[in-house]
Amino acid sequence: MGCCTGRCTFIFLCTLQLLSALERQVFDFLGYQWAAIVANFLHIIVVILGLFGTIQYRPRYIVLYTIWTALWVTWNIFIICFYLEVGGLSKDSDLLTFNISEHHSWWSEHGPGCVSREVPLSGMKGTDSRSYISVMGCAIEYHYIEVMHSAVQIFLALLGFVYACYIISLFSEDADGCLRK
To answer: What is the reported pTM?
Structure first.
């Protein structure tokens, strides 16, 4: 097979998906976004299985990848709706942290151009007192950064889905050709 085959393109797309998911996983860990961490982890595992299936000619793994891709696109559409507050969702809720912490997106305080300032709460002294963090001057609001991350994930997943279907059809044609001989 030549270097610019569908398999090579799919391997390249899976590699891009892995890099993008790993980057997203790091920032979700920094923000304690537990639901997103679990989803990213599953995505990384399934993309690795898709790569393995492509390299080792295992169409079942690629079928698993295509099914997961549909779920992954759905999850990312939910994330976009969550951060754009569509349909009664609120980006200020603790939904992505499973209601076990009050953390939010890491980008909310550390986005490009953001300047954060801690203001101690009045009347509270001690090591457990929390302070209010004021964030100003962000070049891009954090929810738009999260939406862009999800949009990139959707784009890569849809391309991966198309190529995975193509690879599955190639593998089934090869199997049919071997049976005829």
So the answer is: 0.82
